[in-house]
Amino acid sequence: MRILKTIVTQLVMHQPPEQPTPFPASGRHHAVLAVRRIPLDYYRYLYDAVGRPHHWTSRILSDAGLQREIHGPNVRIRVLYCDGAPAGWFELDAGRAPRETRLVHFAVLPQFRAMGLSRPLLSQAILAGFEEHPGALTVETNTLDHPAALPLYRKMGFRPVSTREVSTPAYGD
């Protein structure tokens, strides 16, 4: 098994922005929908579509393990649809730390990148993350993620609070 070194940056936001970022006026229909008890195969499709090139491995689990992670009472998943096709998604967890919501995963599928969807989808994730009025919304990104991830989080108002080096298995090994 190949092991990769990465630097993880944890970021935090204490208040949502006053106005959400709108989706581009492109003539396409955009909808962000809450998914209750997302089917495991559909979740795996979304996760793999984005995570494979960035070596995401935290959700490569058995059915029972994945179900425990994503069907918990404090986990919320929303999927962005563009003209009816899944274009992105995010996962929030409000149950791991008191008065804190964690943006566990945030992604735009590769075929929908460079269409101006990242900022509006992240804006929706931030608003959803503050729905239960936590004291903080946190997110982590690392040097294996898309190179635009950290700058985007910062532009949207997240502030870095710590970094650490982590070893992670390469995807598919």
Quickly list its features.
single chain; 173 residues; alpha+beta; Aminopeptidase; 7-stranded mixed sheet; 4 helices; 7 strands; globular
Fold and architecture overview:
It comes from Aureimonas pseudogalii. One of its GO terms (molecular function) is acyltransferase activity, transferring groups other than amino-acyl groups. The chain is of the alpha+beta class. It has a single domain, classed as Gcn5-related N-acetyltransferase (GNAT) (Aminopeptidase, 3-Layer(aba) Sandwich). 23% of the residues lie in helices and 38% in strands. It has 4 helices and 7 strands. It has helices at 40-51, 63-70, 118-129, 149-155, and strands at 3-13, 30-35, 75-82, 85-97, 100-108, 136-142, 159-169. It has a 7-stranded mixed β-sheet, with helices on one face. A hairpin with a 2-residue loop joins strand 3 and strand 4.
